[in-house]
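Chain A, query sequence.
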Amino acid sequence: MGKHHHHHGHDHDHHDHHDHDHDHDHDHHHHDHGHHQHGHDVVIQAPDTALAEKHRSALERGAGRNKVLFFDMESGIAGDMTIAALVDLGVPFSIVEEAVRALGLSGYALELARASAGAIGASHFDVKVQADQPHRHYRDIDAMIARAPLDPPTKALAQKIFLKLAEAEAEVHRTSLAEVAFHEVGAVDSIVDVVGAAACLSFLEARVIATPAPLGRGHVHCAHGTLPLPAPAALLCLRGVPTVDSGLDVELVTPTGAAIVATVAESFTARWPGLVTERVGWGAGTRSLADRPNALRVVLGTPLAESQSKEHEYVVLEANVDDMTGELAGHALSVLLESGAIDAWAAPVTMKKGRPGLVLSALCRTEAAERVSEVLLRETSSLGARRYAVTRSERPRHMVEVETAFGKLPLKVAEGPYGPAQVKPEFDACAKAARAAGVPVREVIAAALAAYRARS
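Chain A, predicted structure.
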């Protein structure tokens, strides 16, 4: 699965491409006609990081806490466009550079440039591969991310995104996950895009929602031959994500872009969300589009409902089952949480004819109800899923990191007018640190709490 290049730049893991350092507007299929109308041309200036960042004051770490980051994907999404848009929003470019540097890769350079997509000013991000690169298997890439000195949220998110991408590629090529290969330039591009995007999103700490993904038709030529659009791996990454027809015979959503948005977006909306807008960022692609500027727009803002009330609208989904094993029920709960449920649980009940059974339940935001309901019906043997609206009062919460003898550890701090703050170390990070140090996890949790108290 090497790399081919298309209007987004460098973000598709199919095609061996060695001449990476030239314009990316390759005519690799017949759908290029009509994409260079004057009004929507993409113009990229000479790279200058300081110039590219100058128009926007830098955001602070955690600037997205209790806020929404909205991905407006009218022109699709790719990994490079995601990083460009988030830096254009105000995430310091150094966050991307430091995260990528931590991987220990060589033979590449990162470029940030000012760009214009039609009449819209934007940022453009590119990876210039300057030396021959080896083929890299998924297991090697995952190990590279695992051992890199990245902050725990960035590392966990990058691994989750890359796993989704590798699982899709493995299914397309009918091979095992361990044997999935990312070829030369494609591997470097994908690694940089995934880790860079994960670093930006972890830096912001915002909830992500997105529009449905616009898909093109036609074909694209790559090292594996001719592939249909939407690209097979991209479509598999988009399982559970709403998709719409773009009306264009061109690739708008790449596998890496699909893996990013499918992993981080908690819900999708075809309408503009209720937001008090604070910041807008534009990430330009490379190829011009016939009927729209080729740029991803990201919007950071405060949800309208949260600015007006402490109560939010939620939905509880339920399904009764009497023929699922505990193993299957546990798996169903995991998949529900991955699909956007805020919480999921199972409770024993006695059903008709005295049969023992389970009620599988999921709590989610109203806009995610359809997606979670589909998962509930797919992953259980139930023939129907109930739903009812609920409200809940919430403590405002944010993440903090503390230094301990076991390394940096993240904690969730929940405050508000409900008595003393609730402080809870992230258990998975503590468990990992405990294994590495050979101590009980309770010692790591105690150390994290002590470090938090010492700083406050």
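The CA atoms of residues 284 and 295 lie 4 Å apart. DSSP finds 13 helices and 21 strands in the chain.
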